[in-house]
Design brief:
Blueprint (H helix, E strand, L loop, with lengths): L15 E3 L2 E3 L3 H24 L4 H4 L3 H14 L7 H20 L4 H24 L2 H27 L19 E4 L2 E3 L7 H20 L6 H18 L2 H20 L4 H20 L1 H20 L3 H19 L16 H6 L3 H8 L5 H35 L6 H15 L5 H17 L14
Antiparallel strand pairs: 1-2, 3-4
Helix pairs in contact: 1-3, 3-5, 4-5, 4-15, 5-17, 6-7, 6-8, 7-8, 7-9, 7-16, 7-17, 8-10, 8-11, 9-16, 12-15, 15-16, 16-17
């Protein structure tokens, strides 16, 4: 892809060399991206345990950071100009007017809904411009170190009652933050406000774990082994089918990449053997036997309710929802019901019974929500922009396999599905989509040193 169509001149990702040492002219912006990442992981902890009285304002704690990053990058000429960004900004600005004039009529709700289009989506390109290849690896290594303590936390939440401190909900809610589950056990939220954060965290971590299993010299071995164990243990503890399916997808991506690089097959076989041994050991421990039993019960029960694995889960949940949104798009008012009407803010602010009925009638799936909020014209434009960007990045990631660069391809295994249908109305989902989108673009820049071949190992 010409990566410079998604990020400005590659110099924005390069380090200038002075006195024989690398200096980073964008250090403050990189620190801002790291702060965004840290707040994404621990925002829920702040809202549940540390500052429960500030739970509502902390919902948008990452927004000022994102706004500063986008504004600063724009002033420095580091925010790329491309069709995707211009189109999304146009939709966001237009959507504010249509929401106020022809939709729900509340400016605050419209602005809250527009943040995904006007702040977080542009941040994807800022991360892609500011982060270098090595910065992506650094973030991946940090994720690996976070996996073991996160797994310990969700294990505590899994086996603790919802009234326990570790399961305290947002704002100190004593009812607990667990959700769904099976056999009387609830899905644990980890450090996040809701359980989807746990799933998204491990989905992102899995892409890096698989990458480092092929390139173990690029990471601390203790971190890699402990993160691998933590991921395998987290799958049943999370009671999340989405996490299981995403790990399977990432493994399929890895196996496909290995067909183009046969010399890595032995490493993959070794990783598979080790993983099987870990699973065998964990399955013999009574501590994990319960979680495995609960996970299997949830898996079986949900599959039966949705009509089976292929037709119900994969067909209906993914392809079915997307097709239904497209076919029903012209049943929605031309200008939509109003940007932001599907958010929790709309539930709290739009108290009129008619508006409350509209809020409850908005589809949960992302494509249907987008069209319901913005209408068929603007809504479909957003969907096509997300499709186009995903395809453009996917093509570039595939091409990097030709030079034996595995990192972009592995990030794509999670990022492609996220860019296509991550729920932007939900702050945690929006944050992970923004992060993985930026990381994919950044991973397409040449690794340091900035000269010589692009071949990794």
């Amino acid at each position: 892809m010409g990566t410079n169509t998604l990020s400005p001149v590659l110099a924005s990702n390069e380090h200038s060399i002075r006195n024989g040492h690398y200096t980073d002219p964008n250090k403050s912006l990189k620190l801002g991206i790291w702060l965004y990442f840290i707040l994404l992981i621990f925002e829920g902890a702040l809202r549940k345990w540390i500052f429960p009285g500030l739970a509502n304002p902390l919902l948008i704690i990452r927004d000022p950071i994102a706004l500063w990053l986008v504004g600063t990058a724009w002033r420095r000429g580091l925010l790329p100009q491309n069709f995707f960004l211009s189109g999304m900004v146009l939709v966001g600005v237009t959507g504010i007017y249509t929401a106020v004039l022809a939709g729900h009529g509340n400016l605050y709700v419209a602005l809250f809904g527009a943040r995904a289009l006007l702040i977080h989506f542009p941040l994807i390109f800022v991360i892609g411009s500011i982060f270098a290849y090595e910065d992506v690896l650094k973030l991946g290594r940090a994720l690996l170190w976070l996996v073991p303590p996160m797994t310990i936390l969700i294990a505590l939440q899994f086996y603790s009652p919802q009234s326990a401190l570790v399961n305290r909900g947002v704002g100190g809610d004593l009812a607990g933050a667990g959700f769904g589950g099976a056999l009387g056990y609830f899905r644990p939220p980890g450090t996040f406000s809701f359980t989807n954060g746990t799933t998204l965290f491990y989905q992102l971590a899995a892409t890096f774990i698989l990458f480092f299993l092929v390139h173990p010299t690029r990471v601390n071995r203790l971190a890699l082994v402990s993160a691998t164990i933590g991921l395998l243990a987290a799958i049943p503890l999370s009671i999340s089918r989405a996490l299981f399916f995403q790990v399977v997808v990432s493994v399929i991506f890895l196996l496909f990449a290995m067909t183009r690089n046969p010399k890595f097959i032995l490493r993959i076989l070794g990783a598979v053997v080790i993983s099987v041994l870990i699973i065998a050991v964990l399955s013999e421990l009574s501590f994990f036997q319960t979680s495995i039993e609960v996970f299997m019960a949830r898996f079986t029960e949900a599959n039966e309710q949705e009509g089976g694995l292929v037709d119900g889960v994969l067909g209906e949940r993914y392809l079915g929802w997307m097709a239904a949104a497209l076919f029903s798009s012209f049943d929605v008012p031309l200008l939509g019901n109003g940007l932001g009407i599907a958010t929790n803010v709309a539930v709290a602010v739009l108290t009129d019974p008619i508006m409350q009925a509209k809020v409850r009638g908005i589809p949960d799936e992302e494509w249907g929500r987008t069209i319901s909020e913005l209408g068929p014209i603007l809504g479909l434009l957003v969907i096509f922009l997300r499709l186009g960007l995903t395809f453009k990045i996917a093509l570039a990631c595939f091409r990097r396999l030709a030079v034996k660069d595995l990192l972009p391809w592995m990030l794509l295994s999670f990022g492609s599905l996220s860019l296509l249908q991550a729920q932007w109305a939900q702050p945690t989902s929006l944050g992970f989509c923004t992060l993985i989108g930026g990381l994919m673009i950044a991973s397409l820049s040449p690794p340091l040193p900035l000269k010589g071949a692009l071949i990794i190992e």
